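To: structure subgroup
Subject: Chain for Friday's discussion

All,

I'm putting the inputs and outputs inline so they're searchable in the archive.
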Amino acid sequence: MAQGLKSLGYATHLVGKWHIGFSSKKCWPTRKGFDSFYGYLTGQADYYTHVQEGVSMPGFDVPDDWHYGVDLRDNDKPIKSLNGTYGTFIWNDKAHDVIMNHNTSKPLFLYMALQAVHAPLQVPEHYKKPYEYIKDSNRSTYAGMVASMDEAVGNLTQSLKNKGLWDNTIIVFSTDNGGEIHLGGNNWPLRGWKHSLWEGGIHGVGFVSGPLIPKSVQGSVYNGLMHVSDWFPTLVQGVAGGDLHDLKLDGHDMWTSICNGTDSPRKEILHNIDPLQPRPFPNKMTGSQHTSAMFDTTIRAAIRVGDWKLLTGDPGNSSWIAPPESNIKAPVPTDPKGKFLWLFNIKDDPNEYNDLSALRPDIVYQLTERLAFYANSSLPVFFPPPDVRSNPALHDDMWSDWIYDKE
């Protein structure tokens, strides 16, 4: 995204979370098209100390001599002077500086990847106080974090207006997954949560705002299919006017559909194929199941084609969880143990109550064919083992690169 927009003359800046690789500096934001980076490289950190307490790599037993590392940088430069300053405030202030110092002779792309509302659950007390009526401590803290995040978005908008940029600005606000139930999030009435392939785990919500959005669709809800890969052609081609015809993309330019409220050019979404996820034991498979010579349906996978969604293998926790403060009694899943295939019509049944796999084997077959297509055309999974050279103790107690390639 940043590289594409930079090639069109945009100033490009990242404030906040990176989390798409840092083993080598060639993976860092300023080597991936951003003019500047002010933020953190890993997946999460303490909001006040900015320390990442551990690692997010499955099977990595942290050694006894492992150090917890600070994860905060201004481009390549480590920052250790902001211990005690709340993360959302840092990103808010830096985004304001980027906007106010922007040379308006160039267009601006600012990617503000806010830390909130990711774990750990931390927020200044005055944001939490209005939500004291929520008895669940995680939920009340989470609500305070949302309020702090909302304030930061409002401040960003005001900075754009103060700089005189607002009338020519598009704001995209989005998420990367559903809420984590054990850490204050909630996806009711959708089924499942973060880390699952149920709608509660993968159905992201967001909005597009700004004066450039036609008044006829402002305030409306767009229900067309859209995938995260669509943002690249939507913004680089649809908004910025770039030419992407020479690229073979998975994404679709959604700009015309968003502005006119017309049908999405996207007809299907591959949610996931994960051959590394442990599979259900074959001798425990029960219920209505379909096997296929084309695709092993014990593999964890999910695909959406039109209104239909197919899930295979182990999609993750399948519960419906109502907000604890709602006093709603949620239904309990009745799937037999060992079941490994489901089919839903998401348009008619967005909460995934009614498995139609036994009634529509024809649709199951069609979607299984599509899973086979993607599985056969994908690159082999590469998940390298943990590397102790990343230990922050070896890098002045900072999270940093540890593979020193020539740049």
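Points worth raising on Friday:
The radius of gyration is 23 Å.
Confidence is low (pLDDT under 50) at residues 283-288.

D.
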